[in-house]
Amino acid sequence: KHFPGHGWVEGDSHHVIPRDERSLEALRADDLRPFARLAQAGLAAVMPAHVVYPAVDEQAAGFSPRWLQDILRGELGFAGAIFSDDLCMEGASAAGDITARARAAFAAGCDMALVCNRPDLAEQLLAELEMTAPAELASRLAGMAGRGSTADWQAHTASAEFAALRAQVAALHAQDVAPQTGPAVGEAN
Fold first, then answer.
1. Residue 111 annotated in active site
2. Cis peptide leading into residue 2 (ω within 30°)
3. Which of 57, 85, 86, 111 is an active site residue?
4. Choice among 14, 50, 57, 86 that is catalytic
5. Helical H segments across the chain, by residue range
6. Which of 49, 110, 133, 148 could form a disulfide with 105 if both were Cys (CB 3.0 to 4.6 A apart)?
7. Is 15 a catalytic residue?
């Protein structure tokens, strides 16, 4: 997440609708490269950003057929599932109420619409939204299924290679760098 990138904006899409004014060429040179490589490697799922890239489209990426269908699926060859970002966020507000937001996300190319931390809006969406799942959804979701057995996973996590990688991650954390924290939004409590 967050396709096509979220790192150049200052605004937090939980609270504002951020804008990234860079050109498509600049985005291709920087932000799209990892998504292209991951798509070719079989990335199973992605989440678009609630960020507007006006040089490409005036709609946020998660509501943009240009971003999701033309660039992500067409140009980059991504075949996995697309999950919207949380439709309760301020970054999604330009699309309307919760039902309009979900419709816009699906019309743009999202396979799943996320409504987080607001059971009342999830209930409203379930009551108001009528749609049939696209035929491709089953295969995209199947691509997210785990591979191998529990025994395979246990053997992998017990391996020397896994221990070495875990030590590398721990070394990164052990540096005297204070972690940056954002607003408490209830996503990863």
1. no
2. yes
3. 85
4. 14
5. 24-29, 32-40, 65, 98-108, 119-128, 136-142, 150-157, 160-174
6. 110
7. no
